[in-house]
């Protein structure tokens, strides 16, 4: 694009910003956990907290049934592209879900998992497969007369932007994905679908060398000045307008941009704790609900989805397991007003949750065969979730014996307190004395619910949904201990 055309497109972006529509605050719900709330409980929880829209990482019909009649706008996901290979398969999929589209208020369908990362990794075939699935599914929806209500989208992350920007106006998409991205933008515009971005504030602060206070709306000690008098005081506005500038440079100045996920982990590294997450959302959500917009799009509503409703302790990477507002027992970890009114409140707790008996599996202290202790510790962690033991995590300083106990108990709870799961070659005992410390909670999990009623991805599927959304983010988050609070 010629540089001289940028000012006109910039002006068009500003003029198109005001819409008179209020921003929506939604919540994402993933189910990669050993203990899982059942869909009806989740629907009730969302309604109690005034949540108007939800994104789920599946399209299972039992979940669609649970949301039916709730009035909650629903965003579905299809990660298994093997069922969307061509138009006819897409139409078959649409027909199988059509009975639920209206009653379950389906609004969007996410296809794949941040597919443009494949383009950055030079997997052009994988990117093309995802794009073809997106195009064919939207065509099938249009032909079935559902295209006016349901839009097919994919997610985008900051890994798609060129690095080393110091202000939003410098943002531009990477050259290696521009052809496919331009094609996708035309598709989204033709179908009146939004451009969905995923924000990972801890990562973006690190990438762009921001002061930590820049994460929190209304608290920053850092100010970034940009063209046309724009001033940025928080990472959310900075990143949002960075995407808008990049879109302007690809001749898509009017496309609606929504935030498909934004969050902060509560454990697993030194910057992850409930108080920081509470502080983050206390500033962000009232800002979103105010419809203030950004310097580049003043007055524009920014639909924003909080990530996530619950922890997912079976996600493949440690840092991806602690993004939930709620523990698995349905109790909130921190205060958050999901209506964006700025109230200093805990969200409503889930109803009908039954905890298992108050008993824990712990290390008996026998260290005569240390290699065996190490082996059993590693086995327990490999098959449960020991991410709280990571440096900077909530249980990182409890000492070696307690660390082994923590691992044993996590495995025991993952197995729903099956006594056979507390053997560990004679190195463990079951106790009714709570081994938790002031900082480190040894959890008791909930009674088995819908855990077995879950279908794992097929070999052709793109695997787990990402939270956060790309492999690069996982690497960067591993470095955060050197950057954030201790």
TrEMBL record:
Source species, domain of life? Eukaryota
Domain (X8) ranges: 359-442
Q: Report the EC number(s), separated by commas if there are several.
A: 3.2.1.39
> InterPro entries recorded for this chain?
GH, Glyco_hydro_17, Glyco_hydro_17_plant, X8
According to the UniProt entry, where is the signal peptide?
Answer: 1-23
Q: Do you know which SMART domains this protein is assigned to?
A: X8
Q: Which UniProt keywords apply?
A: Disulfide bond, Glycosidase, Hydrolase, Signal
Which terms in the Gene Ontology molecular function aspect does this entry carry?
glucan endo-1,3-beta-D-glucosidase activity
| Group of enzyme by EC | hydrolase
Q: Which family does it belong to?
A: Belongs to the glycosyl hydrolase 17 family.
Name used for this protein in its record:
Glucan endo-1,3-beta-D-glucosidase
Question: Organism, per UniProt?
Answer: Salvia divinorum
What are the top taxonomic ranks of the organism? Eukaryota, Viridiplantae, Streptophyta, Embryophyta, Tracheophyta
């Amino acid at each position: 694009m010629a540089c001289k055309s940028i000012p006109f497109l910039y002006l068009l972006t500003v003029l198109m910003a005001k819409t008179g529509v209020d921003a929506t605050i939604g919540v994402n719900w993933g189910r990669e956990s050993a203990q899982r709330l059942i869909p009806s409980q989740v629907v009730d929880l969302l309604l109690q907290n005034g949540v108007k829209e939800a994104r789920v990482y599946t399209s299972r019909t039992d979940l669609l049934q649970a949301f039916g009649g709730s009035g909650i706008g629903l965003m579905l996901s299809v990660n298994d592209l093997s069922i969307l290979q061509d138009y006819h398969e897409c139409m078959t999929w649409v027909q199988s879900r059509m009975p639920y589209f209206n009653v379950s208020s389906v609004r969007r369908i996410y296809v794949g998992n941040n597919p443009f990362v494949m383009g950055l990794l030079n997997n052009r075939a994988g990117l093309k497969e995802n794009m073809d699935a997106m195009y064919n599914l939207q065509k099938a929806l249009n032909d079935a007369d559902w295209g006016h209500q349901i839009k097919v989208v994919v997610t985008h992350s900051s890994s798609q932007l060129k690095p080393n920007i110091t202000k939003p106006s410098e943002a531009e998409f990477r050259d290696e994905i521009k052809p496919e991205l331009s094609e996708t933008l035309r598709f989204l515009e033709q179908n009146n679908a939004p451009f969905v971005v995923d924000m990972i504030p801890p990562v973006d602060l690190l990438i762009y060398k921001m002061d930590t206070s820049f994460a929190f709306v209304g608290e920053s000690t850092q100010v970034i000045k940009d063209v046309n008098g724009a001033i940025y005081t928080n990472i959310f506005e900075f990143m949002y307008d960075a995407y808008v500038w990049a879109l302007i440079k690809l001749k898509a100045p009017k496309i609606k941009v929504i935030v498909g996920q934004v969050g902060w982990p509560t454990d697993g590294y030194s910057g992850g704790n409930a108080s920081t997450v509470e502080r983050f959302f206390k500033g962000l959500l009232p800002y979103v609900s105010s419809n203030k917009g950004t310097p580049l799009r003043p007055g524009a509503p920014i639909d924003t989805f909080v990530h996530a409703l619950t922890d997912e302790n079976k996600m493949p990477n440690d840092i991806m397991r602690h993004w939930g507002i709620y523990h698995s027992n349905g109790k909130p970890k921190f205060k958050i007003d999901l209506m964006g009114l700025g109230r200093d409140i805990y969200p409503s707790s889930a109803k009908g949750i039954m905890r298992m008996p108050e008993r824990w599996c712990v290390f008996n202290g026998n260290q005569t065969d240390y290699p065996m202790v190490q082996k059993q510790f590693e086995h327990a962690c490999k098959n449960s979730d020991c991410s709280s033991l990571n440096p900077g995590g909530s249980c990182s300083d409890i000492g070696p014996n307690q660390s082994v106990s923590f691992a044993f108990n996590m495995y025991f709870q993952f197995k729903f307190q099956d006594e056979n799961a507390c053997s560990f070659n004679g190195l463990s005992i079951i106790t009714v004395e709570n081994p938790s410390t002031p900082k480190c909670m040894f959890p008791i999990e909930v009674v088995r619910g819908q855990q077995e009623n879950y279908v794992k991805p097929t070999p052709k599927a793109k695997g787990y949904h990402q939270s956060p959304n790309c492999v690069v983010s996982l690497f960067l988050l591993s470095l955060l201990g050197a950057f954030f609070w201790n």
